[in-house]
Amino acid sequence: MYQMSVDPKQILKKHWGYDEFLPPQGEIIQSILDGKDTFALLPTSGGKSITFQVPAIVLDGVCLVISPLIALMKDQIKNLKKIGVKAETISSELSMQDIQIILDNCRFGGVKLLYISPERLNSQEFLNHLNSINISFIAIDEAHCISEWGHDFRPAYLELKKLKEIYPEKPILALTATATPYIQNEIIQNLHMQNPVIFKRSLQRKNLAYRVQYAEDKLSELTQLLHQLPGSSIVFCRTRKETYEVAMFLKKMGFDADFYHARLSTEEKNKKQKHFIQSNQQILASTNAFGMGIDKPDVRNVFHLSPPASIESYFQEVGRAGRDGKSARGIMLYSSLDKKNTFKQFRSFLPNKKEFLEIIRKLYNYFTIGEFEKLEGQKAFSERKFREQYKFSKGKVKEILRFLEQQKIIEIHHSQHDSLVKILIENRNFQDENSNKGKVLSFLARNYGGIFNDATPIDELYISRHLQLSSSFVKEKLHQLQDTETIFYRDAAIIKISFLAARDDNFAKVSLYPKFENLQRIKWQRLNAMYFYAEDENQCKSRMLLRYFGEKKTQNCGICSYCKSQLFQTKPKESDVLNYLSSGNRVSEEIFSYFADYEHEGVIDVLQNLLDEEKIKFKLPNLYFV
Length: 626
Known about the structure:
- This protein is of the alpha/beta class.
- The strands form 5 sheets. It has a 7-stranded parallel beta sheet with strand order 3-4-2-5-6-1-7, sandwiched between helices. The protein has a 6-stranded parallel beta sheet with strand order 8-13-12-9-11-10, sandwiched between helices.
- Helix 5 (96-107) links the parallel strand 3 and strand 4.
- It starts with 7 loop residues before the first helix and ends with a strand.
């Protein structure tokens, strides 16, 4: 057992201002202080970070925190420093000198929590440094990423099993908010946890109403809902292109809307995040790149324009609403074409055995790698050129490359997330500005400050939208400008690849393909579970989600789309509407907002009845009164 000189509750009060822990935070903390391996399944907004931050302060030494997202780490570190707790992160964004300073501070007592990504443990040099640091315990956030059969597998997480070998006596705390019973067991096994103490808090979010709403015209339905349901909202979209189109549509409809995706520059991401966090009304159309680690508890609505690939993903994304405990909604807009199109796409991306083996063979041939040979070093690789040379499907190539990377056959090196451009000629030397190439060059000069002095991050999709050209066409013109030495252009799509194992065609046939096939089968099952949730109209939506994660003894939530329909609460009482209008004249948006828990059509129906009965009056352009 660890010797403590400080009561954890004193730490909680001093730094966070709370008198008591939420259940089971106190028990989890005590388990760590007792030196026991601990597994905790807690809901989003369930206070996971407190369970390792408090014991990190109590114990001597440094808590090593493994987290998959830099944004999440930065946000937690910023908040810890605000309350006087010393925390740092080591990432690829830092210089060697800065890393050395942080490691020295860890050695000499200047740091209580050290955040790293799982990939950092691949560095033997870093592991050597860890040997000289007094580690108190290890916290692993988003622990479901260690499961090969999970929805969000991250190969580097498998390396975390090293930690038990390096620190056999140090307790491990594994934390997740999305893990089925099967995945929970796999987390414990893969981390080599020894007789772990297991804590499971119900994943039920009593303030969050899950709704599935059928909509053939989704943008029209979204607009109506946003008028009814004010407050900060996230609209999850499938593609970068869709985020831009949705945001532009909502702007035209008068909303404070913006778009967000992973290919934005760091500066743009920070600017958009800051505005969204500070706003009470902004709507952000985003891919799933947004939300993890973003500290905004007052998101009132999370919309999905189509179902995600799994219930795990949906549960994680919709869970970003209502983290302040106040009423919030997660609304999925669902149409008759969603399932048909998604299933068709899944099948089109699924290679058969012959295609699987052929793509792998051609990948080796592309780099002239013979049987049982291993290519050393990193090589430039254009996935587009590879596909075009052999006439392969884009979706099938992407699936196989992702699988080969997960199996540690190859490693893809994304040296940059943003494309970079620097203009090499002076402004006055621009020629033929009316040509498409000239238009691209002029747009760069006008819209990217400092582009004549430094290589500047750009977004080809953003440029293509403004110039009304295709993204591939814009890239073609950028490459042409590069060829004539008009600009320096580093295309983010150009990546590097290394081969981690020797070529073995028989191994690919006998071992790799069966595993690939099994993984695709599991993906298919997850996809079916997601669409069963979307289409089933005979069960409480909250109970369906909780049952998926292993919670069986639950009650109907009373607030989801199913429960509302069962309670016949699609419309408010006429007396309630009359009482509300008696307190003052109201425009329709105010009425819809006040009766937001009822169907839009139901509120309109009650208003029309009251008008017909001459109990209320209406004045143009949009005013109701008694």
